[in-house]
Amino acid sequence: EIESIGTSILMGDFNHGPASPGTTGSWELPFHYGLINARGFVSSNVMADGQCTWCTDNPVVAHGSFAGDRILDHIYVNTTMLRRVKRAKRLFDHLSTAAGTPLSDHYGVQVTMKVDCQQNTDDVSASLRPLPPPQTELDNLCP
Fold first, then answer.
1. Mean of the pLDDT values across residues 108-136?
2. Is 8 exposed, middle or buried (0-12, 13-18, 19+ CB in 10 A)?
3. 88 neighbors 71 (Cβ within 8 angstroms)
4. In the β-sheet with 41-43, what is the strand arrangement from edge to edge?
5. How many other β-carbons are positioned within 10 Å of the β-carbon of residue 141?
6. What strands lie across the sheet with 85-91, from one edge to the other?
7. What is the pLDDT of residues 34-86, one digit of tens each?
8. Which of 7, 66, 94, 125 has its CA 20 to 30 A from that of 84?
9. For residue 30, what is the enclosing H or E element?
10. Burial readout 78-111 (b: 16 or more C-beta within 10 A, e: otherwise)
11. What is the Cα–Cα distance from 12 to 38, expressed in whole angstroms?
12. Residue 94 to residues 13, 20, 91: CA-CA distances in angstroms?
């Protein structure tokens, strides 16, 4: 049983989620994604920029097994924590092994959060798997 209490954060390769905006992909296991949402969690990276974490332009992805870019890796925060999210971005999309292949068939996600909006301006980052660029500033979520 997942409980959305206090400062709960769930992160990992959930293998469910929406297609990336502007692609021809479709939802992967929408019921599972909905179960987590129904328990008071939102995917901070979906809310921020919607970049795929399982992308068809990644040469490690087994083409033909799925069509379209998807967001399968998430850092879920409960709705009380959402206001603390400052930025979410994909990681390790430009890193590769010595042989030149990407580190994984999934790219990573990083979310930077404000620890305490009232008293503390230190940032804490939680990271999942590997990748860089697009940064989306969500400064207006934390007054």
1. 54
2. middle
3. no
4. 9-13, 73-78, 41-43
5. 17
6. 120-128, 108-116, 85-91, 135-137
7. 888 888 899 998 888 888 898 888 888 866 566 688 899 999 998 888 888 88
8. 94
9. helix 30-38
10. beebbebbbbbbbbbbeeeeeeeebbbbbbbbbb
11. 18
12. 19, 19, 8
Identity of the residue numbered 77: V
pTM: 0.71
- Alpha-carbon distance of 39 to 37, in angstroms, equals 5
Closest CA to 16 of 1, 30, 2: 30
Q: 105, 103, 113: which is closest to 138 by C-alpha?
A: 113
In whole angstroms, what is the distance from residue 21 CA to residue 8 CA? 27
Tokens read off for 95: 């890193």
